């Protein structure tokens, strides 16, 4: 379960921001997770509840926004939706698609007190 390590990194980011910006409590942590990031949102929520105990993020809501996969087809010269990593272009069927979105995991926003 790599979600535990990912969650520890998220709580570290939140704690660092609390020290830098001087807030004491986080109400909502908004995350962006790409559809092909191989992250299970429910496992992340479960881990977040455990890892955030005793931190500024304890009791915060984890708001997860899933981002669709997207790529640039080198043959078509178009931005196309991707359902899988290294998938074929839905326009021409070739596999010269460079992924441009869908593997992100980022802290997008914090709501704090």
List the defining traits of the structure above.
alpha+beta, three-stranded antiparallel β-sheet, single chain, three-stranded mixed β-sheet, 27% helix, 113 residues, hypothetical protein PF0899 fold
Instruction: Name the strands of the widest sheet in spatial order.
Output: 2-1-6
Strand/helix succession: HEHEEEEE
DSSP strand tally: 6
Supply the helix-strand structural class.
Answer: alpha+beta
**In CATH terms, what is the architecture of the domain at 1-68 and 102-112?**
2-Layer Sandwich
Low-confidence region ranges: none
Helix segment tally: 2
Helix percentage range: 25-40%
Strand count, sense and closure of the main sheet? 3 strands, mixed
Strand share of the residues? 25-35%
What is the arithmetic mean of pLDDT?
95
Using only C-alpha atoms, the radius of gyration works out to 17 Å
CATH topology of the domain at 1-68 and 102-112: hypothetical protein PF0899 fold
Q: What's the CATH class label of the domain at 1-68 and 102-112?
A: Alpha Beta
Shape verdict: elongated
Span between N and C termini?
31 Å
Structure description:
By secondary structure, the protein is of the alpha+beta class. It has a domain at 1-68 and 102-112: 2-Layer Sandwich (hypothetical protein PF0899 fold). It contains 2 helices and 6 strands, in the order αβαβββββ. It has helices at residues 3-21, 41-51; strands at residues 26-34, 61-67, 69-73, 78-82, 97-101, 105-112. The chain has a 3-stranded mixed β-sheet with strand order 2-1-6, covered by helices on one side. It has a 3-stranded antiparallel β-sheet with strand order 4-3-5, with no helix packed on it. α1 crosses α2 (41-51). The longest helix is centred in the first third of the chain and has 19 residues, at 3-21. The radius of gyration is 17 Å and the shape is elongated. The two termini are 31 Å apart. One of its GO terms (molecular function) is nickel cation binding. It comes from Methylocystis parvus.
């Amino acid at each position: 379960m790599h979600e535990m390590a990912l969650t520890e990194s998220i709580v570290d980011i939140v704690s660092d921001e609390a020290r830098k910006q001087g807030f004491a409590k986080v109400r909502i942590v908004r995350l962006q997770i790409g559809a092909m990031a191989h992250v299970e949102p429910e496992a992340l929520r479960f881990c977040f509840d455990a890892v955030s105990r005793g931190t500024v993020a304890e009791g915060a809501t984890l708001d997860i926004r899933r981002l669709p996969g997207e790529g640039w087809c080198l043959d078509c010269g178009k931005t196309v939706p991707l359902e899988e990593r290294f998938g074929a272009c839905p326009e021409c069927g070739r596999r010269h698609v460079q992924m441009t979105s869908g593997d992100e995991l980022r802290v997008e926003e914090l709501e704090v007190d």
